[in-house]
Amino acid sequence: MNKYLQDLIKLSKYDSIISMFEPKIENEKSKLSTFVEVAESIKSQINDTYAQIDDVKSKRTKNNIHLAELKTKLEDIARKNSEITNEKELKALQLEEEIAKEQISFANEEIIRLDEIAAAKEEELKELQAKLAEEEDSIKEIKVSVDEAIEKINEERNKVSQERAELLETFDKKILTFYQKIRRWAKDTAVVPVRDQACYGCYMKINDKTYSEVIKSEEIINCPHCGRILYKEEETAEEA
């Protein structure tokens, strides 16, 4: 096989491997981000629950203030009872007292209802906090695992990058420029094998003459359809 073609195949394989490292790292990070998203969602629920509890407590305080005002009003009505001079004033005062008592009853019922809501929200808050603690423990464990995996990936990437750099030290500059022009648009498929007499970049069948030249591997051959660099893979014993 042509030496330049051999070098191109090696370089293309190195570039393909290097291109896969970043997705591998992102995949590892995504494992952690899933847990982080769940934790953030729980934190948001906790903040909402705190706000709901504060709102309930605020409503309870307002009801307590209103209840105190109503009790003061009843005391004022009781005092006015001694000053009544006619039946009309008596009926008006009795109606006012009846309304005040109904309002007191409603305020007491509302306070009981708000206390029940507050208790339920406090219980919900405890459950969310416990759930958050579990998620944060999981995040710590996953982070250790993810960091270790990323470290191994980076070590492997550095090794491949070093091997690629060593290959480029002896690489023909014109051939490299030629390869880089194709790679700008073909990405990791700049150099592809021919299988079943078809380019495995564009999957178009090549003619017999081109295929014969690819098999000989004496020159660098481009696909007549897409322009990618072609090579014939070595047959395995099984294929032979």
UniProtKB/TrEMBL annotation:
Coiled-coil intervals in this record?
A: 67-170
Q: Mind listing the UniProt keywords for this protein, alphabetically?
A: Coiled coil
Cited InterPro entries: CT398_CC_hairpin, Oxidative_Scav/Glycosyltrans, Zf-RING_7
Q: Name one Pfam family in it.
A: CT398_CC
Residue ranges of domain CT398-like coiled coil hairpin in the record: 29-184
Q: Which domain of life is it from?
A: Bacteria
Per the database record, which ranges form the C4-type zinc ribbon domain? 198-230
Name the record gives this protein: Uncharacterized protein
Native source organism of the sequence: Halarcobacter anaerophilus
